[in-house]
Amino acid sequence: MPDTAVPSVLFVCIHNAGRSQMAAAFLTHLAGDRVQVRSAGSAPADNVNPAVVAAMAEVGIDVSAEIPKVLTVEAVQASDVVITMGCGDSCPVFPGKRYLDWQLADPAGQGIEAVRPIRNEIEERVRGLINEMASADGT
Question: Across residues 71-76, what is the average pLDDT?
Answer without folding.
Answer: 91
